[in-house]
């Protein structure tokens, strides 16, 4: 079962942090179709948020068709988000973790890595083989 975390300093509303973490867990294969999400009471006890915050997050996930609430039973995963299957996300996540480790060893800090990622996302071919070699 997933455990949610809420960072009050992030600037992202708590309900949206829960939604994002649920989506991420689905993409990474930590949650599967049929799995039950923690109850509202469990989330409230774990992260000290208002029950309405959790309900709003779960309603957003339900509107997206990712989960369904079953009266008296809880909230269950209905389907995975669109995109590649969880195995792809896990494999690419491990590859990215290796890259981050290599970047840290090369002396890049988080800001430098974020800048590099932003440039690469905007212009995927911005680093040609000749420039890298």
Q: What is the radius of gyration computed over CA atoms, rounded to a whole number of angstroms?
A: 18 Å
- Low-confidence segments: none
Q: What's the total helix number?
A: 6
Q: Which word captures the global form? A: globular
- For this structure, the CATH topology of the largest domain is Arc Repressor Mutant, subunit A
What structural class results from the helix and strand content? Answer: mainly alpha
The CATH architecture category of the largest domain equals Orthogonal Bundle
> Can you give the helix content as a percent range?
40-55%
The ordered string of helix (H) and strand (E) elements is HHHEEHHH
Strand content: 5-15%
Tally of strands? 2
Overall residue-averaged pLDDT value? 90
Secondary structure blueprint with pairings:
Elements: H1 14-28, H2 40-47, H3 51-63, E1 67-70, E2 74-77, H4 86-105, H5 110-122, H6 129-132
Antiparallel strand pairs: 1-2
Helix pairs in contact: 1-3
Structure description:
The protein is mostly helical. It is built from 6 helices and 2 strands, in the order αααββααα. It has helices at residues 14-28, 40-47, 51-63, 86-105, 110-122, 129-132; strands at 67-70, 74-77. It has a two-stranded antiparallel ribbon with strand order 1-2. A hairpin with a 3-residue loop joins strand 1 (67-70) and strand 2 (74-77). Helix 1 crosses helix 3. The longest helix is centred in the last third of the chain and has 20 residues, at 86-105.
């Amino acid at each position: 079962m997933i455990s949610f975390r809420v960072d009050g300093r992030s600037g992202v509303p708590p309900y949206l942090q829960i939604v994002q973490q649920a989506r991420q867990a689905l993409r990474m294969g930590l949650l599967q179709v049929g799995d039950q999400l923690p109850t509202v009471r469990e989330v409230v006890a774990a992260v000290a948020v208002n029950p309405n915050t959790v309900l709003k997050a779960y309603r957003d996930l339900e509107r997206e068709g990712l989960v369904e609430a079953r009266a008296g039973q809880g909230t269950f995963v209905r389907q995975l988000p669109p995109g590649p299957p969880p195995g792809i996300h896990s494999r690419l996540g491990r590859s990215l973790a290796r890259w981050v480790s290599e970047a840290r060893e090369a002396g890049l800090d988080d800001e430098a890595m974020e800048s590099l990622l932003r440039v690469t996302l905007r212009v995927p071919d911005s680093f040609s083989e000749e420039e890298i070699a």
